[in-house]
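User: Predict the structure for this protein chain, please.
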Amino acid sequence: MLWRWTLLLLAAPLAGGCGGEYLLIGPDVVALPGENAPLVVRLQRREFWLYWPPMRDAAVTFRSDGGELRCARTDKHGYAVTGFPAPAEPSVVRVALHHQDELGYAAAGHVHVFALSPEVPIVAVDMDCLPLGGNQAASAAEALRRIGKQAQIVYFTQHCSAAPEYAHQALEKAGCPAGAVIPWEKDAPWYARNPFRRGRDCPVEALRQRLPNLRSGVSADAVSAERFNKAGLRVLVVGHTRARVEGAAYFKSWTDLSLGSSAEQK
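Assistant: Here is the predicted structure, written as structure tokens:
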């Protein structure tokens, strides 16, 4: 009897994969109003336990709430790419994703296209160093809300970035202002590389080239502070960190940042 239960337990994940379990995800996209924004999504199918191989030559549809419709086929790595019109005015649009195979099994998801104003300053925030819980969470949220009254916020993260809905939920729960969540590889080891950041280019630098009003970055981490500085941003460094960035403003805590009380400037 024991060997029968063992076979059933081993076969259960495989049976689940044959049932058509799909994963259809993509990161947020930042664009200028009216720009043709490049949407990149990935389609994978579960075959065995944690094995999710990419689906090649599969059709994926993109549809906005306003009725815009696009379709693209995946490449050998499971990526589907299409251009999608950003809103004509600064705002955010939700784009629904859909795939259905020949057996009727379907996958659904969505991505967000953020149309940012070229006239309003943009602030980059390292989301991974935000205290979304604990004693400093309220102060961090207040600091970002204060910044958000005068600027547009874009978050950068190594986590939850391929499926940013989790990041949006965490930010909303913490009381932080809404903003696009962009994947980057700040210091990820090779085995944790984000599939949507296959190149070595820095998304902060790429975004600044397209949107020169990206001028500042907020971080409590030495690595991201240096990355922001290298991209040409003025860095606001929070907390006790070994970061020593030229021209940066230093704040002892998130409370000081929310009050605008800079401790020192290098």
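The CA atoms of residues 15 and 255 lie 52 Å apart.
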